[in-house]
Amino acid sequence: MERDDVDGSLPHSQLDSQPSILSCTLSLDHVGQVCLNFNSDGLSWTLLEPLDNDDSTCLCIKFASKVATTDIKFSDVYAVELIGYGVIHGPNVSNARRCLKGHREHDSESYRFTVHGFQSSKTLPSVHVLATYTFGHKDLHICQMWVHQINASLDLQQGRPKNLLVFVHPMSGKGNGCKTWDSVSPIFSRAKVKTKVIVTERAGHAYDMMATIGNKELITYDGVIAVGGDGFFNEILNGFLSSRHKAPYPPTPSDFLDSASCNESLIVNDPDPSDTIIEASSQNNEQSPLLLSSSDNGSGVSNITDQEPEFSFPSEHLRFGLIPAGSTDAIVMCTTGARDPITSVFHIVLGKRVWLDVAQVVRWKTETTSKVEPYVRYAASFAGYGFYGDVITESEKYRWMGPKRYDYAGTRVFLKHRSYQAEIAYIDVKSEEINSTSEKGNVGGRKRPFWSSNKSEKVICRANCKVCCSKPTHGSPDDSCMTPYSQAGETKWSSSKGKFLSVGAAVISNRNEKAPDGLVADAHLSDGFLHLILIKDCSHALYLWHLTQLAKKGGNPFDFKFVEHHKTPAFTFTSSGNESVWNLDGEAFQAHQLSAQVFRGLISLFATGPEV
């Protein structure tokens, strides 16, 4: 049977002449007849016909009425579409009830429209799943008017992206980057979000693209999406910041280096074309180190024309998104609460936002005998030396093992139990200054007795966290790249010197499947502080005890005499003797001497924080 052409729209004159539909009886697929209501904040419907007569019985079995009211908010709806004439299935009933009642459900045909949205998982609060509701009516114009009304409400939703630049790492994690994108790309199409998709072909491809893309083109996108792991996101982030973020070098103690070398004016981070990063042999994983940009014109500035507009920080317009397809996906776990592609797409398509701190790491010397040459990198989650760097180096020997190589390499590095001589200096922050920013009751540095079961009060970063949802305030545009303690004369430096199994600086908690609370359970996404974790040389048994506390929910990994935990906005590092390498968001980075600082809320992500 031929039916009217269905295109999901009516002429505006015809729509305007029709009264608004606020309530209507429709058929809901697999449910039955419902009264659908159009509310100011969403849709709600009530089942009109229970599956059986109220409180009916058969063979002494009583069937209760299944009248229920259900709703979905427009803030959780990403699309509505008219899908034409077809079958609306009858209510779902169990086989047992169907046999006992002799009840036979009838399907019907009508014009249909589908509402696409998300809903929270019943068992995992941070996980969101797709929710699809198909309604039917015999009158095509009724369906068209509902689609028009719903689309009009969706157009009023603020902050939703319309145009995205997407980078896909095809070999990320277990090589599922393209498969992951293919599984979620229909959601963007239904939501009418344009996507320019670039599948990377080599290590550093995404870095080069982000470093050379002009700001005029970049501002046409509402966001940049990475389909991969933490290392791939780091590559994109560094490409973006390399030629755009102007900032002073991190503050340093007076005796760190010659003051003239450390306190230069605003700089632009653009990679030196020298061999400064440990290169991987192939692009088998998102954690292969970055190759340097080939777009450098020899002047120290990327090939971006003088006519390009300046990019301001923090940006209200451009957001970043990360769809997990990596080995650990710690950034996704910390910002959305789930290592789940659909949950990440939920945050992206619905235009969520959370600010994220970014650490600037400046290497001053590659080796002891190297001359002073500042080289800037950025990290969004973690910078680690010693154990963390050795694991990255060791894992490169076993790339054929895939993600499992990190467990194997970690075991080998643990058994070798290497420690490294170094000196770390950090800005000593008063406890009241920390309290005013993000927490109450914790002090900036922790030095515990051998073991203590006392737990200090922890303020965990959650969805809509008051600390992270507050936009950083700056007095002037130039202040947007300043950190809380970057001015000379305002800082008090403390230091720690000796042999260390590891030195770590966590920007965020780094929660992952192996460490449910992360490295630092009470780290925030955007509070302007780094968590400096110093693990002094100790026995195998004690170090294993520390690691087991990290792997334990509610553990106390800092409550050991050989562990120091300092909350600070900046620190410096100088090694002596045998050296390891640094691990920056999963990228190997060689440095004999470096300084680091954190920029509060430098970028924003399509996320809200975890609902834990």
Secondary structure topology:
Blueprint: H1 12-17, E1 23-28, E2 32-38, E3 42-47, E4 56-58, E5 61-63, E6 69-73, E7 77-88, H2 95-101, E8 108-120, E9 128-137, H3 140-155, E10 163-168, H4 177-190, E11 194-199, H5 205-212, H6 215-218, E12 223-228, H7 230-242, E13 246-247, H8 259-262, E14 267-268, E15 319-324, H9 330-336, H10 341-349, E16 354-365, E17 375-379, E18 382-386, H11 387-395, H12 404-416, E19 420-427, H13 431-437, E20 445-447, H14 466-469, E21 493-506, E22 530-536, H15 540-550, E23 563-568, E24 570-576, E25 582-584, E26 587-589, E27 593-605
Instruction: Flag low-confidence runs.
Output: 8-20, 52-67, 100-104, 271-305, 438-456, 473-482
State the separation between the terminal residues, measured CA to CA. Answer: 53 Å
CA radius of gyration is 28 Å
Helicity, as a percent range: 10-25%
Write a compact overview of the structure shown.
The protein is an alpha+beta fold and 612 residues long. The chain contains 15 helices and 27 strands.
Please tell me about this protein's structure.
There is one protein chain. The chain has 612 residues and is an alpha+beta fold. The protein is 22% helix and 29% strand. It is elongated. It starts with 11 loop residues before the first helix and ends in a 7-residue tail after the last strand. About 16% of the residues have low confidence.
